[in-house]
Amino acid sequence: MVDYDPACDLFYAPVDLNAPHVLAQNGLPPSEGRPQFHQQMVFAVAMRTIRIFERALGRTVLWARDASPEESDRRNENGVPRDFVKRLRIYPHALREANAYYSPEKTALLFGYFKTGVRPDAEDSSWVFTCLSQDIIAHETAHAILHGMHRRSIEATNIDALAFHEAFADIVALFQRFTMTDVVEHQIAATRGELRTEQSLLTGLARQFGQALGRSGALRYALDLLKPLPGGKKHPPLSEALEPHERGAYLVAAVFDAFVMIYERRTADLLRLVLGQSRPDGRELPIDLVRRLASEAGKAADHVLRMCVRALDYLPPVDVHFGEYLRAIITADADLVPDDRLGYRVAIAEAFRKRGISVPGCISMAPDSLMWETPDKDCDGLEYDKLFASLLPTIRQGVNFDAPNSGSEVDGKPPNYREESIRVIVQNQHAIWTWLVEPSEDDEKWEGLLGVRLTRGDLKTIPISPKGKPAVEVHSARIARRAGPSGEELVQLIVQIVQRRHGYMNSKKQRAADEKGTRIKPDFTFRGGCTLHIDLRDGRLRRVIRKRIDDDGRLERQRRFRSDDDGGLATAQRTDPRRREPFAFMHGS
């Protein structure tokens, strides 16, 4: 926590949350005018968000730093990224403006504050602090966690890339609302059990911030795309939504609509038992029913949020699209909960279909058709089970970060499990990278399975490593421990492998460079790679989720995206001095 206010050139005294007088009153009392309460508020919400992710992922979350494309591409001699950061920094009063954003360059959350009204000096104007909004804090923290898991997710490689970042952060903020039992019960009683209404405080994000900007309500609504437009007009299709927040609203609406369907399915019998077949207008719900409905809403929100978070491990490491996120949600849930008794996966697939989010390559939107394929079809005679089983002795299986008293103290202090996790991950990354760069007679077969080049071949635009093979990066090698409802534990090694290739806007120049090589500076960097899921019980390779480096069709789509410049995102990242801060650019506008 760094509470420096550059507009006033002041450092505010830090709050000591372990001070006896603070502990005695269970934290500082709410106070908009006290910087120390602002610090406590933003710290508490950020930590709660982090714990939600760690519980769903089965491991610690880590932070990443991408100061610039050039610096983030530098690797140490082992081919392992050097941009892990031990701590996320938080600046509660970093900006005097109506903005808040996650900074990849600083690995920090920066919160702004501003005065309301057209005339800030008017008597009726008041200060609005974004660090006091639970929605905004959770949203920005989710950006930081997602970047830590997928360090290439902040690159605008397609129209969905940054929209996915915004939508996912909104999803986390929305569903965190349902952990506040008193608020949920109040809103359930006020709306008589209905969640498909704008009157509910549970469906809008950053209400005070939106009103301060002159809007009639919240900054964004999960139900914007579910309510009818005036005059019987229809909402524009997803293909016409270009701005990241506007496009991301389709993904938020799909997930929230699925949640509401699940909630209604879980509570239909309760409502019939208490109220019969109808709910007459004006009739208040019994308090016991309100509590049960709130409990069911909280459970459904927790389940759906966990599904959304676990899906991050089932995404390709680069160039993500909305449809791939749907496949990730379905596959991650099916791996952990084979029996979808309550139809969660059906509800999610149906909600995505209604929003126009398609999945190219799938014959239908049925959950079974949407799952990522197993690698058996692509192994091409490889004994991949034996290979990964042979790697197990070199893989460290991590630390138990949920047992705070299980480790030995260092200098009188408890062990830092996040630092230990980084050491374990780096060792595992090195083990995987060593296997990739060692010459093998099966290299060409592995190329087909992994989607990266391990031989020079006909792509001279892939940089060469000091080992003489095409350079390859191991972005992540993390252990995930998850327990399903049956009690069976799923222990996996999640590996992200990424490769880069020089890209040129002119297709003829691209072909010439691929075939013969060139010293001409590339116009952009094209990336491919895969996410591997290795079962640590037997070393079996369970999933390979690829974006091939030699996919010229995907290369052409990226070339077209950059030349068409939908939404100005690609140009901003190439030419804007703040290209290192995509969220400052988007949130500020």
UniProtKB/TrEMBL annotation:
It comes from the Bacteria. SUPFAM superfamilies: Metalloproteases ('zincins'), catalytic domain. Residues 560-589 are annotated as: Disordered. This is Uncharacterized protein. It comes from Sphingomonas corticis.
